[in-house]
Amino acid sequence: MENNKKPDVSFVWKITDDVLRDTFKKNEIGDVILPFVVIRRIDCILKPYNETVRKNYEQFKDKIADQNLEKVLFKAAGGKKFYNTSKHTLVTLLDDARNCEINFKNYLNGFNKEVRDILTNFQFDKVIAKLIRNGLLYQMIQEICELDFSPEKIDNHDMGYIFEELIRISNENSNETAGEHFTPRDVIRLMSAIMFTPDKDVLNKNGIIRTIYDPACGTGGMVNVGKNYILENICSEGNTPTIRTYGQELNEQSYAIAKSEALITGENADNIKLGNSFTQDQFKSSRFHYIMANPPYGVTWKKDQEFILNESLNPDGRFYAGTPRVSDGQLLFIQHMISKMEPDGARVGVVTNGSPLFSGGAGSGESNIRKWIIENDWLECIVALPKDLFYNTGIYTYIWFITNKKSAERKGKVQLINAVDFCAPASKSLGNKRNDILPEHIEQILALYCNFEENEFSKIYDNGAFGSFYLTIEQPKRKTNGSLDLRRGEKQPDTDKRSYESVPLDCDFNSYFEDEVLPFIDKESWIDLSRTRINYEINFTKYFYKFVTLRESVLIKKDIIEKEHEIQGLIKDILS
């Protein structure tokens, strides 16, 4: 059942109206409120442990190594992965309005390194400086202290919903860049339904451990929504598997949001890493059960080109199958994700635009990557999504589902689902997002996937159907008298008459040439086998093309004549 939980985040509007309005722009509100919510949640969690932490800090700070001191303080903080050694809390800062600024900075410096790292990547110092310049720091702390985020009042699960809603509001307020780091929840829920439903029997158990990884995690929404989908839609009551989430993100502020959500909801924040997944892979030796991503579309990898091309020469590297054109790295992400599949069984879901389906001709890097994926029988299903689903683009997009544990009925086959009409107009347009995939649409698309049958919206093909021989047809040069122009007794190609043919892999291309090509060209023509290439592409338009019968010309002419008479009658009435 779809989760309809709507957390109460009305405090956002109160703080905006009472403190931030006219000082911060609408698209900056999230930059202020998100880090303050993080430190307020931590402040509430640490309240019972503050005295013990400070006593231990004073007792051991000059007597043991920093690494050992940190372990002592983690233990003093109830085993949490954060602590604060300052004598202040957010609430006690309000007791000394005159020294609020210096005491607040002392309070922030009291946090352990990981929390300070999060605040640095939030660029929190700029927020604080602006609040101080405008005389609003004390008032902001006052407002945030009105919120009770203690675990007794709000558990980790509910805190995750609050933070998710804050992220959504923040991205909606700055929707011109939201799509770069934020995937709409309806898209993630559809992906989750198809990702996790096949494993329902395995996931619906206590004691098992499963991992979810996103190599372009943005603010962390994909892995968190995926985890919640498992717990709420896959698991029956009483069965709670352990789901561990992992992610890597290049953008510092998005990384800070993802890491802080992990921290304040009880996840292991160390599983969220900062850096370029291509050149700074933080999970080199890790493998995962589920891998989800919405990598950037059409983004150049030129600055990483030397590193990636070097790795592509390594048979054990991630990119050995091929490299796409330098202007678009989507197929690099897909290869990276495949390299992270748990050998005993993994499922991958990745959102792309249309380019990875068909860009690049025979022998290109793109075609070779598709060939590698399909011939290894990893591609399970592709779903064509409605347009206008994302904040920063209105184009059609697709979800690829890849697995190394296909069910018996799916082996050697690929399912294509045309879901472009499974949506409803959004109640409010946000940037380019004008459509929503509703819960009933998710159920319908999931049923198409699970039923694995051919119909108007679902097509099933053998793997080989996506491949073809790309033949170079040469016609011979001839002299003015019509005789062959021979050199050393061999025919010479006339490059002006060179042509190309695409022939399905399951077809004998020699017979095809003899029957379908040669009768219409010079009888001395031939196939240049040295130029023959294999091409793989997935052409959704071709597979779901609907032939529309054209109306007969006499009927069209009749309509035109009737329309002309109608217009002439209107003109006559006006003039009379």
Level-1 CATH class name of the largest domain: Alpha Beta
Q: Quickly count the domains.
A: 3
Shape: globular
Strand order of the largest sheet: 3-2-1-4-5-7-6-8-11
* CATH fold description of the largest domain: Rossmann fold
Q: Unreliable stretches, pLDDT < 50, 5 or more residues?
A: none
If classified by CATH, what would the architecture of the largest domain be? 3-Layer(aba) Sandwich
The pLDDT mean sits at 91
Name the CATH homologous superfamily of the largest domain: Vaccinia Virus protein VP39
Q: What gyration radius follows from the Cα positions, in whole Å?
A: 30 Å
> What's the end-to-end separation, in Å?
66 Å
Tally of contiguous helical segments:
23
Structural class: alpha/beta
Largest sheet: 9 strands, mixed
Description:
The protein is of the alpha/beta class and 576 residues long. The protein folds into three domains: 11-156, no CATH class; 182-452, Rossmann fold, CATH 3.40.50.150; 466-543, no CATH class. Helices cover 42% and strands 15% of the residues. The chain is built from 23 helices and 17 strands. The chain has helices at residues 11-20, 29-46, 50-60, 66-76, 90-93, 100-109, 113-121, 124-133, 137-145, 156-173, 175-181, 185-196, 200-203, 221-234, 252-264, 305-312, 330-339, 355-358, 365-375, 439-451, 509-517, 540-543, 553-575; strands spanning 209-214, 242-249, 272-274, 290-293, 347-352, 379-384, 398-403, 413-418, 424-430, 433-436, 458-462, 467-474, 486-487, 490-491, 499-504, 526-527, 533-536. The protein has a nine-stranded mixed beta sheet, with helices on both faces. Strands 12, 15, 16 and 17 form a four-stranded antiparallel beta sheet that branches. A hairpin with a 2-residue loop joins β9 and β10. The protein is globular. 36% of the residues are buried. The mean pLDDT is 91.
